[in-house]
């Protein structure tokens, strides 16, 4: 049995990751693959408990280091409990975020050294790397329009913070060879861009697009 593949969707809140993850999972399933979808942090009991603290405990004042280690703890559990077993069973895993988010949020935007975050991340993930990372790149005005709901603890940090996130993501995408997707377009257009990128990364998936 061949090992599965890990596809990660990265980007700021409001970039459309959740919707596009569902599209990717459905597209892969239609082509006969077993697919596991997960979110980081989350998708385990430990990860969901940590997610609640990180995103919804507005009363807690956390240092960037504390945030980083909590995210790493959730990811470590996710990798060992969900992702690695799925990959070893031959399933494809589609994840909403992975280590790049930690590097960008607590590194570029939070003030920590991105290289130090990478070192901790390598320990947390056991060295696991995505087979393909897709960065859904979106401008700040579009993000502001899409976040028309109560904001979580990180989303509420404002435009300057989002500017640092945007710059950090673009730097990391260039460094890591992630595929940058223009996520300001309508959902169908973005989905088609993503499918083209997946087919380019995995030639065995060449064939009809998202509508075929």
Q: Profile the largest sheet.
A: 5 strands, parallel
Q: CATH top level?
A: Alpha Beta
Number of domains: 1
* Helix and strand element order: EHEHHEHHEHHEH
Strand order of the largest sheet: 2-3-1-4-5
Give the name of the CATH superfamily: P-loop containing nucleotide triphosphate hydrolases
Helix- and strand-based class? alpha/beta
Query: What is the averaged pLDDT score?
Result: 92
Second rung of CATH, namely the architecture: 3-Layer(aba) Sandwich
Count all strands and give the number.
Answer: 5
Silhouette: globular
Distance between the termini: 27 Å
Whole-angstrom Rg: 17 Å
Beta-strand share of residues? 5-15%
Q: Can you tell me the CATH topology? A: Rossmann fold
Low-confidence stretches: none
Helix content: 40-55%
Describe the protein in words.
Helix 1 (17-30) packs across helix 8 (187-201) and helix 3 (64-88) packs antiparallel against helix 4 (99-108). The two termini are 27 Å apart. 53% of the residues lie in helices and 12% in strands. It has eight helices and five strands; from the N terminus they run βαβααβααβααβα. A five-stranded parallel β-sheet has the order 2-3-1-4-5, with helices on both faces. It has helices at 17-30, 45-56, 64-88, 99-108, 114-125, 140-146, 159-176, 187-201; strands at residues 6-10, 35-39, 92-96, 132-137, 179-182.
Topology:
Layout: E1 6-10, H1 17-30, E2 35-39, H2 45-56, H3 64-88, E3 92-96, H4 99-108, H5 114-125, E4 132-137, H6 140-146, H7 159-176, E5 179-182, H8 187-201
Parallel strand pairs: 1-3, 1-4, 2-3, 4-5
Helix pairs in contact: 1-8, 2-3, 3-4, 3-5, 4-5, 4-7
């Amino acid at each position: 049995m061949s090992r599965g593949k890990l596809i990660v969707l990265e980007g700021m809140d409001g970039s459309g990751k959740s919707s596009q993850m569902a599209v990717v999972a459905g597209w892969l399933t239609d082509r006969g693959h077993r697919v596991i979808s997960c979110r980081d942090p989350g998708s385990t009991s430990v990860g969901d408990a940590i997610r609640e603290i990180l995103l919804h405990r507005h009363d807690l004042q956390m240092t960037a280091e504390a945030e980083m280690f909590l995210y790493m703890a959730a990811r470590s559990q996710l990798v060992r409990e969900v992702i690695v077993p799925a990959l070893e069973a031959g399933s494809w895993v589609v994840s909403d975020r992975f280590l790049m988010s930690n590097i960008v949020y607590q590194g570029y935007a939070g003030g920590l050294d991105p290289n130090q975050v990478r070192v901790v991340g390598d320990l947390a993930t056991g060295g696991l790397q995505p087979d393909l990372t897709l960065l859904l790149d979106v401008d700040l005005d579009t993000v502001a329009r899409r976040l028309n709901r109560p904001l979580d603890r990180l989303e509420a940090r404002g435009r300057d913070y989002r500017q640092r996130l945007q710059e950090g993501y673009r730097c990391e995408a260039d460094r890591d060879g992630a595929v940058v997707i223009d996520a300001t377009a309508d959902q169908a257009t973005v989905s088609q861009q993503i499918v083209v990128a997946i087919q380019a990364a995995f030639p065995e998936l060449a064939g009809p697009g998202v509508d075929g």
